[in-house]
TrEMBL record:
UniProt protein name: Aryl-alcohol dehydrogenase-like predicted oxidoreductase
Cellular component GO terms, alphabetical: cytoplasm
Keyword vocabulary terms for this entry: Oxidoreductase
Domain NADP-dependent oxidoreductase: 14-288
Naturally occurring in which organism (per UniProt): Naumannella cuiyingiana
């Protein structure tokens, strides 16, 4: 498995997005299937797993996905200590599925402490502010994460769903080299984070595309149909359209670490192979020139 840098860690070039094991589909996989999927990812060489406190089937089961990750790591036959786990906090879910955002230090601290308990850890490898809270200054949320790091509760700091201005604020608060990652939506369908990707590439900040295949819906399964250039390259290489898409993302910059979601072992073991798929300059040009209108990003 090829590797890339994520803050102080060296991780696999492809990570595992664990969200589909807990939400995003009409029917979630059984716990046994979910754990088998995580094990398949780890056995294939993945060393970074992404989760979040809100990844759960319902508002009153928050932490569901983190528990799956913890159980999978605890039952894996390999060295679980070599696996970097990233989780997120800052989005709220309440009774009746009322969603909101809270970037206050008090809320983030409570969320972090709960994540620590569920994951069974004394320290979170990568803790990410999930979405901006427009009711506070952006710097306040980042300052809270810096305080948690200084207290030894987290190792590395990341932010998610952030624009260039917000990334710059985080860098200013933390200092150059201390923002480990930015996790934004990015795929052939959602390319509106290209500016953020470029900003991260210039500064050596890991860029983690979420929904790198277009989401958990039909788009990820119909990449070849929706994008003929992807199908053309996939057929010529004898690989899946999903591998071509992830390889295209990896080729954007050395800081890119896609985290495709999976709820079946077959899905993630196919995605892992993208790390060894080096696209030619001609193939990259073909793909870059073929993208049509993109879906606007909704903050």
């Amino acid at each position: 498995m090829k590797t890339r840098t994520l803050g102080p860690f060296t991780v696999s070039a492809i990570g595992l997005g664990a969200m589909p094991m807990s939400m995003g589909r009409n029917t979630q996989p059984s716990e046994e299937q979910a754990i088998t999927t995580v094990h398949a990812a780890l056995d294939a060489g993945i060393t970074f797993v992404d989760t979040a406190d809100i990844y759960a089937p319902s508002w009153d089961t928050m932490g569901h996905n983190e528990a799956i990750v913890a159980n999978a790591l605890g039952s894996w036959s390999g060295d679980a200590g070599s696996i970097v786990v990233g989780t997120k906090g800052g989005i709220t879910r309440g009774e009746g599925e009322s969603w909101g955002r809270d970037g206050s230090e008090a809320y983030l601290r409570a969320a972090l402490e709960k994540s620590l308990r569920i994951l069974g850890r004394d320290k979170i490898d990568l803790y990410q502010w999930h979405r901006p809270d427009r009711n506070i200054r952006y710097a306040e949320g980042v300052e809270a994460l810096a305080k948690f790091r200084d207290e030894g509760l987290i190792t590395a700091i990341g932010i998610s769903n952030a624009n260039v201005e917000e990334i710059a604020v985080a860098v200013d608060v933390l200092g150059e080299g201390n923002l480990a990652s930015v996790q934004n939506q990015f795929s052939p369908r959602y390319r509106s984070s290209a500016d953020e990707l470029e900003y991260c590439a210039e500064r050596g900040i890991a860029f983690l595309p979420w929904s790198p295949l277009g989401g958990t819906g039909a788009d990820s399964k119909t990449l070849g149909e929706n994008y003929p250039a992807i199908a053309e390259v996939a057929q010529a290489r004898g690989v899946s359209p999903q591998q071509v898409t992830l390889a295209w993302e990896l080729a954007q910059a050395p800081v890119v670490i896609p985290i495709p979601g999976a709820s079946r072992p077959e899905s993630i073991t196919d995605s892992v192979r993208a790390a060894d798929l080096d696209l030619s300059a001609d193939e990259l040009t073909l793909l870059n020139d073929s993208w049509g209108p993109q879906t606007p990003y909704a903050d």
